[in-house]
Each structure stands twice: as C-alpha cells, then as structure tokens.
Amino acid sequence: MGGTFNPIHRGHLALAAAAKKVFRLERIVFIPSGTPPHKKPGEVLDKESRYRLVKMAIRGRKNYYLSRIELDRPGYSYAIDTFVALKKKYRNAKLYYIMGLDSINEVLSWRKPLELFKMCEFIIGTRPGSKIRSFRRLIKFPPLQKEADKLNLIELKEAISASDIRQRIKEHKAIGRLVPKVVAGYIIKNGLYKDKI
Q1: Can you list the residues of the chain whose pLDDT is less than 50?
Q2: Domain assignment present for 111
Q3: For the chain, what is the mean pLDDT?
Q4: 3-state SS, residue 137
Q5: Nearest to 123 by CA among 188, 35, 28
C-alpha cells in the first residue's frame, strides 16, 4: 500500500482492511513515499514524521507491515523501482498495489506505467465524491484497455482526505474522528501541519 500518507488516516486503514478481506491477502505492506515526484518541495511533511505516524497507526494490527524501501532510496520515489525490489523479495507472491482513485487517475504520468502492470494488480479505493468518470475514461485509453482486468475497485463509505485533515489542523478543528487516536495525539503534541504544508 503506497502513498505519501500525509497524514495516514482512517480511510487508508479502511481500504487496507477491505483489500485484505476481499482479496484474502496474506499481508499488507505500507510503503510511505520518500520524495514523491508529483509533489512540490514543502508540500509533504518530512518523511521520518510520516513514517512514525504510519507505524503508530498500524501497531498491533495482524499481518500489517511497514517498509522503508522508498524512504531510504535516494532520489525520487518511483513505483516501478519499488515493485522491481518487491518482486525480488517476494519471488513467488502475487503482488497487489493498493491505492486511492486519485492516484490511479495519474498513472499514465508515472515512470514506465505499462511495465508496472506486468508486475502487479491494482486494488483501488473509491470514496464518496471520487473522480470515477476520470477513471472510466482512463481505462478506455488503448494501452490500458487490455490491462483493465488488473484494476479492481473497492467502494468505501469513508469520505476522508488528507488535505481536509491538514486544513482542519490549520483551522484548529478536531481531527480525532478522521485519524487514529494515537496519530491525532502525536500530530497535536508535536505541532505538525501547522505551517505551510
């Protein structure tokens, strides 16, 4: 499960739980991005803070793991590089890439996206108000038409976005229902997201 997790929230955890149940996944590996190429400098909280927040959020959850593979790799975090490494680590496993609909809608702007489809299937979480029309147009694009069977949608009831959470923090509004309690406590205690992020 990849993403900036800026910050991790209950929507991420709901997607992970649904994917695990529906696809009978043996394990979920959370992989926070190190330096995402699609984000401007200063737009994302520092990687060590995001890593700590994910670690807190998944602590005690069975078969949930956390990886530093993108955090420790120099340069930009590209999904293709991550899956090349995951293929070597989990040689006989079937790999899925779990993400939100907003992310998959940008897939054609990624590095070597069609090669990524050869390495994994996708589990895509949609939330109320998601850009499903953009997704439907995307899968009609000729190079992706033949890969459409590798794109699996899961509808979630949670309409939570990290950008909304960041805005609420700036406005001194409660976030306890949107993120795990321990995450909310850490964010407030350490004054995270109060600046320009």
Answers
A1: 197
A2: yes
A3: 91
A4: helix
A5: 28
